[in-house]
Amino acid sequence: MMRLANRTAFGRGGPPLAPAWLPAAGSIVDVSTNTINDVKGSDTSTPAIFNAWSGVAWAPWWGDYGSMLFSGGGHSDGMENSVYRYDVGTQLISKIIEPATSYVYGIYNADPITGWMWANTSGSAVQEGQPFAAHFYSHLMALPASAFPGDGGVNGYLYTPSRTAMALDGNNGTNQPQKLRLGLDTLWTHAGLRPGFSAENGFGVYDSLRNRVWSLKNDTALAFDYRDLTAGAFGSATHTGPNAGGYYCVGGYHAAEDCVMYARMVSSTLILGVFDPVTNVFTKPSSSGVAPTGSDGAFDWSDVWNAWVYWPGNGGNTVYFLKAPANPRTGTWVWSSQTVTGISRVGTTWPQYNRIRHCAALGDVLLWVPNYNVPMQGIHVTAP
Fold this sequence. Notes:
By secondary structure, the protein is mainly β. The protein has 1 helix and 27 strands. The chain has one helix at 48-51, and strands spanning 27-30, 57-59, 67-70, 83-87, 92-97, 116-118, 126-131, 141-143, 157-160, 178-181, 189-190, 203-207, 212-216, 223-228, 234-238, 250-254, 259-266, 269-275, 282-283, 287-288, 298-302, 307-311, 318-323, 333-339, 356-359, 365-368, 377-380. It has a 5-stranded mixed sheet with strand order 20-24-23-22-21, with no helix packed on it. Strands 1-27-26-25 form a 4-stranded antiparallel sheet, with no helix packed on it.
């Protein structure tokens, strides 16, 4: 395994120096020394993490350069609720949560009220702390340690506002929020009271100003649902403006402008929405420039670059950027692109959701996860 370059210690000189394996500027290379498949153990439904409607979570504070987290399954795609981690600093993928035994009662393997998996086939008990494998779309997220004050999650949390596509039938789920203290827990806990909404088919976004999680579902949503993490309260913000359905979209929070956003490419057409949580006004701003073609590549919002990043994931070598205007609500967003050298691995044929992430600790480097059986890749671009 490649070793990191010399680096300073946190708290005594800042973040680590760039590692020796950092991709050269303008290139894409493999950056993990193993794959999820290498560490799956007895798991049999590992492909479902990428082939069953799930994105990834990004914890930039966990590890020297951050960590990417993977989980997924549900419906007929798999019942294993394993969680995997890619530690950027060590270049290693590991399984951090082993799957629970799955019992089917009726046509489901979990209780929709608690979200916990059944402990037997009679449905008389649950395995507390063991949530069912789910289609996460873009609402599996990492939250900072400050999200739940006094809870002891020093490495932050893996969090989901809801879970959908419960095995085996797939037409049930739970709207019970759940959290996992990263690096500390092997069992999940409930994250507040159970609201009357879910993030089905949509996305979740962490609002750092309010310590709030926003979510939006489907194509017909007329309100942005939210949960205030400090107080535990939840509700919905009915918006003015056009319909704001978030079907298969990726969400982002623009900290400098205090707005919740989402994006998706469908049949070479951009879907872009911006919601103002102060005025409850929702807009669909225009864009200019040469846009990518195709559908459902990977999106990530970068506060550092004030731009969306889009990676088609089709084996090509072009990275696209959608730069925010001075007023992201009503101004015109601008597309640009860069071409990198190297072998770009092909992602799954399913939506890529948020599987590209800007690793700001490494400067202008993107991390991309194509599939369960190939290495992670790093893409070194020029800041847009």
